[in-house]
Amino acid sequence: MKKEIDIFFTALMFFTRIPCPKWIGHDPEYLRQSSKYFPLVGIVVGAIGALIFYLSLFVFSKDISILLSMAATIYTTGAFHEDGFADVCDGFGGGWTKEKILLIMKDSRLGTYGVIGLILLLGLKFSVLLQVPSSLIPLVLISGHAASRFIATTLIYTHQYVRDTDNSKAKPAAKTMSFGMLCIGGLFGLAPMLFFQQPLLLLVLLPMYMGKLFLGQKFNKWIGGQTGDCAGAVQQLTEVIFYLSLIVLWRFI
């Protein structure tokens, strides 16, 4: 049990800025196994966003509360996944060979494609959440963050890691994932959705996975697999797809 707790805290330390116990290190094996807890980390991040939204509503309007919630989740993760999404936009937008794409994605500077991608992504996320009833936004946030991270882990399971160097900090986490780890991640990823008490809402997983297949196909075509940035891009895209799909499904429930 202590080992699993350490593995979870390793995931929490790697993907967020939340303080972790001092005994937690950067063991590569623990980091590799931590991928099964990515959706659980999503629950934690989503819960922080939900709490900020709930508390903000006592003082501010709904739109301001949503923006504060988004800012809180971005701060909590250090924009980890947003950075991956922007890197993918820059790499695949400006590179025409595997080597060039990987080189651009490693560049710490933000390019035009990344800027435009982030503006559209965050603007769409904000606009969609505005359409969600205020009473449901906390649960929607928690579910969206958890489910999208589960879909991102399926990319690690189905696509090989292709970073051409061994000094990538995300390599141990993004390199491999067993079927058992994927199942554990699925349990955490889908658990929050049970509180909607609407089984049909699980259909949101279909367009989310289709979004992952769309990006996965491009990743395979151009670089022959995935990197940590690719998983971050899948998480961000499928989170928005989750919110969009919920709005559509609510029209028929």
From TrEMBL:
Catalytic activity as recorded in UniProt: alpha-ribazole 5'-phosphate + adenosylcob(III)inamide-GDP = adenosylcob(III)alamin 5'-phosphate + GMP + H(+); alpha-ribazole + adenosylcob(III)inamide-GDP = adenosylcob(III)alamin + GMP + H(+)
The pathway where this protein functions is: Cofactor biosynthesis; adenosylcobalamin biosynthesis; adenosylcobalamin from cob(II)yrinate a,c-diamide: step 7/7
Q: Does the keyword Protein biosynthesis apply?
A: no
Segments traversing the membrane:
37-60, 110-130, 136-158, 179-206
List the Pfam families hit by this protein, alphabetically.
CobS
Keyword terms: Cell membrane, Cobalamin biosynthesis, Magnesium, Membrane, Transferase, Transmembrane, Transmembrane helix
Which GO molecular-function terms appear in the entry?
Answer: adenosylcobinamide-GDP ribazoletransferase activity
Cell compartments where the protein resides: Cell membrane
Please give the cofactor(s) recorded in the UniProt entry for this protein.
Answer: Mg(2+)
* Domain of life assignment: Bacteria
Q: Is Transferase one of the keywords?
A: yes
Q: Give the primary localization class.
A: membrane
Q: What is its EC number?
A: 2.7.8.26
Q: Membrane topology for this entry?
A: Multi-pass membrane protein
- Cited function: Joins adenosylcobinamide-GDP and alpha-ribazole to generate adenosylcobalamin (Ado-cobalamin). Also synthesizes adenosylcobalamin 5'-phosphate from adenosylcobinamide-GDP and alpha-ribazole 5'-phosphate.
Instruction: Give the family per the record.
Output: Belongs to the CobS family.
> PANTHER family given for it?
ADENOSYLCOBINAMIDE-GDP RIBAZOLETRANSFERASE
What's the protein here called?
Answer: Adenosylcobinamide-GDP ribazoletransferase
Q: Which organism was this protein described from?
A: Flagellimonas algicola
Q: Identify the coding gene.
A: cobS
